[in-house]
Structures are given as structure tokens and as C-alpha cells.
Amino acid sequence: MASTLVKIERTPIRVPASGGYLGADLTLPEGATGLVVFAHGSGSSRYSPRNRHVAEVLNKGLVGTILADLLTKEEEAEDLQTAGLRFNIRLLARRLISITDWVGGQDKLNTLGLGYFGASTGAAAALAAAAERPRVVRAVVSRGGRPDLACAQLGAVCAPCLFIVGAADPVVLNLNRAAIAELPAATERRIEIIPGATHLFEEPGALDEVADVALDWFQRHLRGGTT
């Protein structure tokens, strides 16, 4: 049986934030059941090939995506020299909240259930932002993340959280397990360990597994739109 082609609309956008504008790519499949904002970390931008691969899988599964730079162009230039801003979780979370609030003002988007996908330090920013917008953010997925860097906000996270870690990434695996224990007892959480995978999930098939489990998580938790 031939597969059904999904009609997908791609739009470059600029989101106002403190300090300037954030460049972003909005991708919206026809009949989208949710929208996921990607939070990049450790110096990567919206052009991260790993996150774009995951986003493509989400799009084919009828989940819209926003891949945004959480730093302005000037800040990116500074970060290339100092590598300091990529670890400024407070700043990254504020930028993610700016994007979230922008989505809330868009008639075409604000009826979709909203989730975050965070990688590396971006996962900490996603959790911190989810704690600030508990009535808006319906799901969080962390890929090889550093949720421990959001330690002060973990106790206020209400959204269901999925933590994806490579089995061959023991330090990050232990950091994730410790951070998960800090979530409220009522918060749904799961850790998914990808066999043989290292921190960047560069092993054959590893990133596909990441995308598949992330898609399942978002499809289950983002359906039904806003509450």
C-alpha cells in the first residue's frame, strides 16, 4: 500500500525577545495534532542536524515544530568566543518562554497542544520554562539532556517528562536519574535508555529510536489542544 503524503507548510519566522529577535523555522503539517518547540543547547542552533532529523519525524507524525535560535546573532558571536551563554539556563528559559508566549498570540497555533524538546543544556531550559508555564506546556522530552542544571525549577514541573539517554553515556544517565527524583511525585515521567548509544546518538539507528519514542510521547500528550 502506498504511503499517504503529508502536506507540510514551512515558514521562517522572527520572534521578539529581550535583546532583539530570535530566528526560527516553523513547520506545520496539515491536520497537526500538536506543536513542539525545540530548545537547542551547548552551542548548537536551529540548524542542528540531529534536532532537524527528529523534527522531520515529528512532522511526518502530524506534529508541528518550531526550531528556534535561543540566542540573538550578537549573542551567538559572543558565545562562540566565551562559550558562556550556552550554559545560562535562566536566559535560555526566558527565550523559550518568549517563543511560548508568541505562539499563544497566533490564532493558527494557539489551539495546538504545546510541548518542548530539549537537547543538552536546552533540556534544562525546557524544564525551567515548563515550570514557568504549567498551564500551557503539556509535555517535555529531553535528549541527552542536563536536567540537573534546572535543579531549582524541577520541583515545579507539572508536564509529563520523557528523558532519553544513551546507555553508553553513564555520566549523563546518572545526572538524569538524580534529576528525575526531584520532580513532583504526581508528575508523569519516564527514562528511555537507547542501547549502545553515546551522548550524541551518532550510532546507526540510535537517532531514529530517539525520534520514534519522542513522537509517541508527544502524540499521546499533545492531542486535544489547549485546556
Q: Report strand order across the widest sheet.
A: 1-2-4-3-5-6-7-8
Strand content: 25-35%
The CATH architecture assignment turns out to be: 3-Layer(aba) Sandwich
Number of strands: 8
Per CATH, the superfamily is: Alpha/Beta hydrolase fold, catalytic domain
Radius of gyration: 16 Å
| Biggest β-sheet strands, sense, barrel | 8 strands, mixed
Helix content: 25-40%
Mean residue pLDDT: 91
Distance between the termini: 37 Å
Oligomer: single chain
Per DSSP, the total helix count is: 6
Please report the first level of CATH classification, the CATH class: Alpha Beta
Task: Classify the fold: give the CATH topology.
Answer: Rossmann fold
Shape: globular
Low-confidence stretches: none
Quick recap:
With 227 residues, this protein is an alpha/beta fold.
Describe this protein's structure.
- Helix content is 34%, strand content 25%.
- The chain has a single domain (8-222), classed as Alpha/Beta hydrolase fold, catalytic domain (Rossmann fold).
- The chain is globular and about 40 Å long.
- α1 (49-60) links the parallel β3 (34-39) and β4 (63-68).
- The protein is α/β, with parallel strands linked by helices and 227 residues long.
- The protein contains six helices and eight strands, in the order βββαβααβαββαβα.
